[in-house]
Amino acid sequence: LLRLDLSHNAALHGVHPRAFRGLPQLRELDLSHGALGALSLEALEALPGLVSLRIGGNPWVCGCAVEPFLKWLRSRVQRCSSDSQTAECRAPPEVAGAPLLSLTDESFQACHLTLTLDDYLFIAFVGFVVSIASVATNFLLGVTANCCHRWSKASEDEEV
């Protein structure tokens, strides 16, 4: 099999990671105008002879999961003709309408943020301080309520 056209398929929401195994000679793959939001990198890596990939017209979800696919696509653009220029992001809202290839490494910085031990210790400390402040506030509110109640009772006794 040299050419596979799965275009204009509204039921095509995903491609199984092993969908193209056994097709090392496949040269042209058309996945355009479907319902793909993402594409498994494993599925594409099974196609060493791929020279044409059409992916435009799909509702791409350009979150963290698309980063490996985008890196693969950029590394193959010179060897593989693609309509990726017409592929646009549909989600998340902050990149909706942006061309898929316009996303940069900076677009995915938040995907690589991790908390350090210092971060966890700071969070634990702040949580402890907030809980102590909450207990102190509740204690003061209780004392204030008790004082107000006693003052009110004393006022009633003086009037009688």
Describe the protein's architecture and organization.
The protein has helices at 41-45, 67-76, 117-159; strands at 3-5, 28-30, 52-54, 60-61, 81-82, 89-91. The protein is α/β, with parallel strands linked by helices and 160 residues long. The protein folds into 2 domains: 3-104, Leucine-rich repeat, LRR (right-handed beta-alpha superhelix), CATH 3.80.10; 115-159. The chain has a 4-stranded parallel beta sheet, with no helix packed on it. Strands 4-6 form a two-stranded parallel ribbon. The termini are far apart.
What keywords describe this structure?
160 residues, single chain, alpha/beta, 2 domains, elongated
- Corresponding CATH superfamily of the largest domain: Ribonuclease Inhibitor
Kindly state the percentage of residues in helix: 25-40%
**Rg calc:** 30 Å
Q: Supply the CATH class of the largest domain.
A: Alpha Beta
The tally of structural domains comes to: 2
Strand order of the largest sheet: 1-2-3-5
Low-confidence stretches: none
How would you characterize the largest beta sheet? 4 strands, parallel
CATH topology of the largest domain: Leucine-rich repeat, LRR (right-handed beta-alpha superhelix)
Structural class: alpha/beta
Total number of helices: 3
CATH architecture designation of the largest domain: Alpha-Beta Horseshoe
Q: Strand portion, in percent?
A: 5-15%
